[in-house]
Specification:
globular, 17 helices, Rossmann fold, GMP Synthetase, Chain A, domain 3, 27 strands, disordered C terminus, 5-stranded parallel beta sheet, alpha/beta
Length: 533
């Protein structure tokens, strides 16, 4: 099956059911299809063919869901962009992907204008929102609403205009993540990858047409994007939240009778600490999921107490569509005490139904299930990426003998639940975003006063982890903490810049002269077992 088949199923069974709620606007599944089918037809007219790439620079909105489907309908690949990146970083990604079109929200007009001359492959820039204001280039820039306006296409017309031979092995999406050297890597996901994952979540989370999903985490990130296909497939309702704001999210949960959602721990922590959290009705909420960043057991406890619903910890990767584990309790674990149940809920979880997961030593032996021996998580299955866009060497390093090596180190208990304890790579996860220390270090080294530096993740109540810079200045060099942080923010995305800088006289080094980051991390994480993922 293909991604567009999920919408076909929804239109067949639930044509008049509410599909999308975005602010004060609402669309049925029939209306949803009518809008996206006209946009898909436009993509055909403008020369978008099977295999082409179309970039999306947009906050959560009904347009994002429409574009996701319209691109899939044409057999093209969607390239969702992290709008927190700088203009230069966005240009690098779009040029690497060879994007032929860009769909963007008007709020990013200034960013796009900075790089529009640096995007040679982007033939069309399509702006959503209202149609007010003159466009920069009448031949290149268009209004999205002018394309999709008109009466909804009847359900009987579903696929009547589809003339593309799309296969399940074709690339449906390319999600860019930072490489270990700062070079972005495009994770390719096929129709089969995404469809198998959607079917797995339907089974694991028992999704039905009675469910109402809140899109609170950004749709450019798979922490939320996977629900696009699963919720549509079962005929559920999508509720959009453009910008994350705790009171607005809490109000939406009550007003739209939301039944489930997935958020990063930073968001959930902000919700439970909001002054008005007790003023809303959460009776329809059946489960909250979290993933994408570390979460403390204390926060899990407060989530369950506040919302009085089930809680599921998740772990996954862009490379795996994304879920690899869920902390869903086995039936016999539900008979344990509340404290014991909470202990299992706070673990990384047992393997997702659609994958095969092992934790192995460097020699390839599976670790003992004693929650002491540590190994690397490796996985295989139909949800695993075929590789990185135009990066065969990176692909070969990550996928060996059919197994994806995640780089995440974990222990496992006798029930088969894993708990991640460290990362093989020096990745920092801050507020649900991945930051690689090398990229930040390279930026700090550009400052004339910096002699040596290292960047590590440190515990942070709000962000899970925060980016910490450790700097040794040159003998005659002078720089303040504020100056170095500002220096980084001017050159890389703001969320990648250090939140703080420590100045020390010398960095610890191994016998071979390498900077010993473990000793630096130990200064901030003295009790490693408290670092829960």
């Amino acid at each position: 099956m293909l991604l567009a088949d999920t919408l076909k199923k929804a239109c067949q069974f639930f044509p008049h059911k509410e599909a999308i709620i975005c602010g004060n606007r609402r669309w049925t599944y029939e209306e949803f299809f009518g809008r996206l089918s006209r946009f898909s037809a436009y993509l055909k007219e403008t020369g978008i063919e099977k295999g082409d790439r179309v970039a999306i620079l947009h906050p959560n909105c009904h347009c994002f869901l429409e574009v996701y489907y319209a691109i899939a309908l044409r057999g093209a690949a969607a390239v969702p962009l992290n709008y927190r990146l700088s203009a230069g970083e966005l240009a690098v990604i779009m040029n690497n992907a060879g994007a032929k079109a860009l769909i963007a929200d008007p709020r990013f007009r200034q960013t796009v204008d900075q790089i529009r001359t640096d995007l040679p492959t982007v033939g069309k820039i399509i702006w959503t929102g209202d149609n007010t204001g003159e466009l920069p280039d009448g031949n290149r820039d268009l209004h999205y609403e002018e394309i999709v306006v008109g009466a909804s296409a009847p359900v009987s017309d579903v696929y009547v205009d589809v003339d593309v031979d799309v296969k399940e092995t074709d690339i449906a999406q390319i999600y860019y993540t930072s490489g270990t050297t700062g070079r972005p890597k495009g994770v390719m996901l096929t129709h089969k990858n995404v469809m198998v994952h959607a079917l797995g979540t339907i089974a694991e989370l028992q999704l039905t047409d009675r469910d109402v999903w809140l899109h609170a985490a950004p749709l450019f990130h798979l922490a939320d994007a996977w629900a696009t296909w699963a919720i549509t497939w079962v005929g559920g309702t999508h509720v959009m939240v453009g910008e994350f704001d705790p009171p607005a999210v809490l109000a939406a949960i009550e007003r739209e009778k939301v039944t489930l959602t997935n958020m990063i721990p930073t968001m959930l922590n902000m919700l439970v600490n909001d002054a008005g959290v007790q003023n809303y009705d959460y009776r329809h909420l059946r489960v909250l999921l979290s993933g994408g960043a570390p979460i403390a057991p204390e926060v899990v406890r407060r989530i369950v107490e506040t919302f009085q619903c089930d809680y599921i910890q998740t772990y996954g990767m862009t490379e795996t569509s994304p879920y690899l584990t869920l902390s869903i309790l086995k039936e016999h674990l539900l008979q344990k005490s509340p404290d014991e149940q909470m202990r299992f809920k706070s673990k990384t979880g047992r393997e997702f139904i659609a994958v095969e997961l092992k934790v192995v030593t460097d020699e390839g032996r599976e670790i003992r299930r004693d929650e002491k021996e540590v190994g690397e998580i490796i996985v295989r299955g139909d949800t695993v990426t075929p590789g990185y866009w135009q990066m065969p060497e990176e692909t070969a390093r990550a996928i060996r003998n059919g197994w994806l090596y995640t780089g995440d180190m974990a222990v496992m208990d006798e029930e088969g639940y894993v708990t991640i304890v460290d990362r093989r790579k020096d990745m920092i996860m801050t507020g649900g975003e991945n930051v690689y220390s090398t990229e930040v270090e390279n930026t700090l080294y550009l400052h004339p006063a910096v002699l040596e530096c290292a960047v590590v993740g440190v515990p942070d109540e709000k962000w899970g982890e925060a980016v910490q810079g450790i700097v040794v200045l040159k003998p005659a060099g002078q720089a303040t903490e504020e100056e170095l942080i500002r220096f980084c923010k001017e050159r890389i995305a703001r969320y990648k810049a250090p939140k703080s800088i420590d100045f020390i006289s010398a960095l610890p080094k191994t016998g071979s002269g390498k900077i010993e980051k473990k000793k630096l991390r130990d200064r901030y994480w003295p009790d490693a077992e408290k670092k829960i993922y």
